[in-house]
Design brief:
A six-stranded mixed sheet has the order 1-6-5-2-4-3, sandwiched between helices. About 35% of the residues lie in helices and about 20% in strands. It comes from Streptomyces cynarae. Pfam families: Macro.
């Protein structure tokens, strides 16, 4: 069974086999977690993202999907980029958010990663309410068959940490 741990802090400072990036579909960096990972990880990550765009992902990575690159200068072997959905009060996009976690774990399994650090996907600039984002994240990780031994949710502030802690027994 996969252990779920919580850490309050900066995901770019984590040591893990794979760090998940809440990427935008362009894969070319952006704000929030995405920008921080690209800045701290250095140019090797962007270089591999550009190669992915030039080959398989010419129109960008679709929402709910995941793909891996090098981790560059991060203390990890890989960065798994996943594109979370923007929150919409008019349309239930919960399945797309759950898919981010399932797809990231599938990619982690393909890579042989045993420890994976996740941010709260879509809970930042994409506006997903943190309590619901935490519920979807934890339920999906628990329900997903994976060889990953530890999923670490790295949460930027106390509010996010408390929302995720409320999902754990």
């Amino acid at each position: 069974m996969t252990a779920i741990t919580l850490v309050k802090g900066d995901i770019t400072r984590q040591s893990a086999d794979a760090i998940v990036n809440a990427a935008n579909s362009s894969l070319l960096g952006g704000g929030g977690v995405d920008g921080a990972i690209h800045r701290r990880g250095g140019p090797a990550i962007l270089e591999e993202c550009r190669a992915l765009r030039a080959s398989r992902y010419g129109k960008g990575l679709r929402t709910g999907r995941a793909v891996a690159t090098t981790a560059g200068e991060l203390d990890a072997r890989w960065v798994i980029h996943t594109v979370g959905p923007r929150f919409s009060p008019q349309e239930d996009r919960s399945e797309l958010l759950a898919s981010c976690y399932r797809e990231s774990l599938r990619v982690a399994d393909e890579l042989g990663a045993r420890t994976v650090a996740f941010p709260a996907v879509s809970a930042g600039i994409y506006g997903w309410p943190i309590d619901d984002a935490a519920r979807i994240a934890v339920e999906t990780v628990r329900a997903t068959e994976t060889a990953v031994e530890e999923v670490r949710f790295v949460l930027f502030d106390e509010r996010a940490y408390e929302a995720f802690a409320a999902q754990l027994p």
